Amino acid sequence: MPLIRTLLQITNFRNPYLRTLVPSVAAAFGIQAAVAIPSVAFQSERFYDFSGSLTYLSCTALSLYLPTIRARVAAEFAGKPILPFPSLSGAFTGQGGVATAAGAFNWRQVALSAAVTLWTVRLGSFLLSRITAENGRDSRFDNIRTSPPKFFGAFMAQATWVSLCALPILAVNSIPPSAFASLASVAGTAVTVTDILGLATFAGGFAFEALADSQKSQWMKEKREKRHSEEFLTHGLWSKSRHPNYFGEVMLWTGIATTSAGVLASNTGLAAMGLSATLPARIAAVGMAGVSPAFVAFLLFKVSGIPMSEKKYDQRYANNPDYQKWKRETPMFFPKL
C-alpha cells in the first residue's frame, strides 16, 4: 500500500484528466519493460505477443478504475468509509447511461473498453496459438533476439504501439464520468451520431478482420492436411482484397476513433481536458483520437504489414501466372465490390 500511495502522489497532477491519462500510458512501458528483462536474458520472444495483449487489457482497466482507486486510498488514509468499485452494467442503466454519481462509468467508457478488450482477446489468442505452433519462435526476431538493446527496443516499440492505438480509449476513460451529464444535456440525447457511426464501423471492421483470419487459418490447416494444393489463398474475402485482415484492422480502429472524437472534441471533452472551446483545441482533440487508426495504417502500409507480405509473395511467385493474375485483378487494400 505505501508503494501504491507513493505512485498515486507522484501522478497527482493539478489537472484531474492527467491524473488518469498519464499513469495509464506509463503503465504500458512499465509492463513491457518488466516482460522485456527476462525475455532479453533468455533470448526468447515466446511472451512478446502475449505481453502486448496483457498491456492493452491492463492499461484499459487502469484508465477505467484509477479514479476509484485514488478515492479508495484517500478514504482509507483519512479513516473514512471506502467506496465500492462501480458496476460496469450500471453504465447502461439509470439516466440513459449518463454517469452522475462520483466514480460511476459512462456507457461510452464501458463500450469502448469492451470493444478493445474483445479485439485484444481475439487477436491475442490467435497470435498465441500461432507462436505455440512454431515452438515459441518468431522469424521477426531472428536478427535481434541476440542483441539486448535491439530486443529491448522491440518491447519499447510495442509499448508505443499500445499507447498510441489505445489512446482514444484511454483519453475518453480519463474524462470524469460526471462530465458526461453535460454532454447529454447539450446533445439532447445520451447517444450521438458519432457514437452510432463509430461503434457500427468498429463492429464491421472487427467482423471483417476475424473472418479474414479465420479463412486463412482454415486454408492453412487444409493445406497441411493436403486437402488442396493451392499455393496462395484467393477465395473468400481474399478474392476481394489482398490484405482483408489489414483492412478490417484499420476499419475497427477508425470506428473507435470516431466515437472517441465525438466526445473529446465536444465542449464537455475539451473542458474536462482543461482546454478552451476553440477550433485549434477541437482539432487537437480529434487528432488525439485519430492518431490510433493513422498509426495502425502507417505500420501496415510502411513498416511490417503490407510491404513485407507483398515482397515475400512477389519473390516467391514472380513467375506464377495465377499469382500475377490475382494480384492484377485484386485490390491491395480496399475490397472490391
What does this structure look like?
- This protein is mainly α and 337 residues long.
- It has helices at 2-10, 16-42, 48-78, 107-133, 148-173, 180-187, 193-224, 244-264, 267-272, 279-303, 306-316, 321-329.
- The longest helix has 32 residues, at 193-224.
- The radius of gyration is 22 Å and the shape is globular.
- The chain starts with a helix and ends in an 8-residue tail after the last helix.
- Residues 95-101 have low confidence and may be disordered.
Quick overview of this protein structure:
69% of the residues lie in helices and 0% in strands. The protein is mainly alpha-helical and 337 residues long. Helix 4 (107-133) runs antiparallel to helix 5.
Present the secondary structure layout:
Layout: H1 2-10, H2 16-42, H3 48-78, H4 107-133, H5 148-173, H6 180-187, H7 193-224, H8 244-264, H9 267-272, H10 279-303, H11 306-316, H12 321-329
Helix pairs in contact: 2-3, 2-5, 3-4, 3-5, 4-5, 4-7, 5-8, 5-10, 7-8, 8-10
